[in-house]
Specification:
Layout lengths: L2 E5 L13 H10 L4 E7 L5 H10 L3 E2 L1 E6 L5 E6 L2 H14 L14 E3 L5 E4 L12 H10 L3 E4 L9 H5 L10 E3 L6 H7 L8 E2 L19 H6 L4
Parallel strand pairs: 1-2, 2-3, 2-4, 8-9, 9-10
Antiparallel strand pairs: 4-5, 5-8, 6-7
Helix pairs in contact: 1-2
């Protein structure tokens, strides 16, 4: 199943204003994708609408979020059910630093309906780290029934290697995201204890044109393990 599991909507302060539910879904179909996830920063509030729209376009949808830990490390959380996703949103709200967003400084945080009409603006700035450690974020994702994936592991700001320099021993992750498939042999050699885990190559798209073409696919065993149908 061809995928892109790291896409930002206009709810993310760094997301382009054209990243509306229908635009994202249409572009995904145009590029030949079958499975997508929108993973906004520290929020799942766009997920209900995004899932509905994705299904209307015949796409399989995985609920997602990109958390930022106290260490300023990005962790992708994926959830197969609406119940798990909603529980994760409540946890996030209990661990947010309640700073009012300044759109002129941090960026717009726009919520859309299924027709791409603006229905609200998220008032809390999503750009700040949560009041939770890397380990606590992963534990919360698991407790809510999700899968935890280290985002853009190498060579990018907020990736774990960029922030800490190494993967802590015994970190209970469910996968890693690499920006370039050429990094796969290096990762497996450096961290053989994690070589059996799913390795995702996502776009981290903040603009429509950045969404991946149908290049990378997930096979049936991983789809089943992650509850994707």
């Amino acid at each position: 199943m061809f995928y892109d599991l790291h896409i930002h909507s206009g709810l993310s302060p760094c997301g382009d204003s054209a990243m509306t539910p229908n635009n994202i879904a249409r572009m995904a179909v145009l590029k030949g994708l079958q499975l997508i996830a929108v993973t906004d920063h520290n929020s799942l509030k766009q997920q209900h609408v995004m899932a509905e729209v994705a299904h209307q376009y015949g796409l399989t949808y995985l609920y997602g979020v990109e958390l930022q830990s106290q260490e300023e490390v990005h962790i992708l959380g994926y959830f197969a059910t609406e119940k798990s996703m909603e529980a994760m949103q409540k946890w996030i709200e209990n661990h947010q630093i309640k700073v009012k967003n300044r759109p002129d400084f941090f960026g717009d945080q726009t919520l859309f309906d299924k027709d791409d009409q603006i229905i609200d603006d998220e008032p809390v700035a999503l750009i700040f780290s949560l009041n939770a450690s890397l380990e606590s974020c992963i534990k919360a994702i698991h407790h809510k029934g999700g899968k935890a994936v280290l985002a853009h592991l190498y060579g990018r700001k907020y990736g774990l290697i960029q922030q800490l320099g190494f993967i802590p021993e015994g970190l209970p992750i469910d996968g890693v995201e690499l920006c370039d498939p050429r990094e796969v042999p290096f990762f497996k050699n450096e961290y053989p204890q994690y070589a059996h885990l799913p390795i995702l190559c996502n776009s981290d798209a903040h603009q429509l044109g950045d969404i991946h073409e149908a290049r990378f696919s997930l096979e049936a065993p991983i789809l089943k393990m992650w509850g994707i149908r």
